[in-house]
Amino acid sequence: MKLNMPRHQQIYAWLLLFPALALLAAFTHIPMIKTLWRSFTSSGMQNNTGFTLDNYRYLLEDDVFWQVLSNSLWYAAVTVPVSMILALAMALWVNGKIRGRSALRLAYFTPTILPMITVANIWLFFYTPEIGLFNNILGWFGHSGYNWLGDPDLSLFSLMLMTIWKEAGFFMIFYLAALQGISRDFYQAAAIEGSSRWTTLRRITLPLLMPTTLFVLINAFLNAFKLVDHLFILTKGGPNNATNLLLYYIYENAFSFFDAAYASVLTVVLLSILVVLAVFQFGVIERRVHYR
Asked: Which residues form the ABC transmembrane type-1 domain (predicted)?
């Protein structure tokens, strides 16, 4: 239905929208267009605007890029579902009638309010080979311990473990709020019908939590692909790029190697991945969401 607004009201509406539109264009749309254009220009510090596909050819031949992309996909594939499952389990637990649930909720949420650099330094102490907490605990059982961040086979897993510890409590808050918003009438009706706990969870709780699950899923994937702070403190992408993730690789090319053109190519790849994930989430998962 077309709204027939007076012209002065239309102008007034656009004036109200202008500050937000200006900021959106200045910090989102214009940088995206400039990044896309720069990805087709010459590499290095030269200010050459000549069109070229060399950056994309180099991307396909860059072994480091393929390793970084593999690391990023594995990182997201592990941290996202594990964090969400733990968050849901913790929310179900602290939503029940248990002793000290307020203190338990606070304990679960505490890692979330810590700054990322602080979290990285805490886990750096945990992972330090000689004096680290984990190796000291293993030493009680006669084990010499591991080089958690220096072993290419363990370093990415160690990074995942820290991320899960930090983010599960954050996602728990959303699930807990959603659980408290579900009417008790559903559970009373299920109890009258003799429904088991598992059936109630599968048939009532999980479907009604789908809007929250979609929200948490989107945030979890965004967090998985924007991790960069922890890498500065823990590994700087090492050893031998075993923990190098896509956003950190973009930072390296832009500010360490001063290759803005290639960093733009990598940014286009990152944005493309996020667009594909967004289409899947809103095009496929959205259809399974039950809104009340």
From this structure: 69-279
Question: For the chain, what is the radius of gyration of the CA atoms?
Answer: 24
Q: At what angle do helices 260-283 and 210-225 cross, to 10 degrees?
A: 170
Write out pLDDT tens, residues 195-232. 888 888 888 898 889 889 988 998 999 889 988 888 88
Prediction pTM value = 0.87
- Split into its structural domains, the chain has a count of 1
Residues 6 or more apart whose Cβ sits within 8 Å of residue 227: 75, 163, 245, 247, 248
CATH number at residue 131: 1.10.3720.10
Give the domain extent around 202: 63-288
Does 27 fall in a domain?
A: no
233 in any annotated domain: yes
Residue 22 lies in a domain: no
Q: Where are the alpha helices (DSSP H) in the chain?
A: 7-24, 30-38, 54-61, 63-94, 101-113, 116-127, 133-140, 155-180, 184-192, 197-200, 206-208, 210-225, 229-234, 246-251, 260-283
Question: pLDDT tens-digit profile of 79-89?
Answer: 999 999 999 99
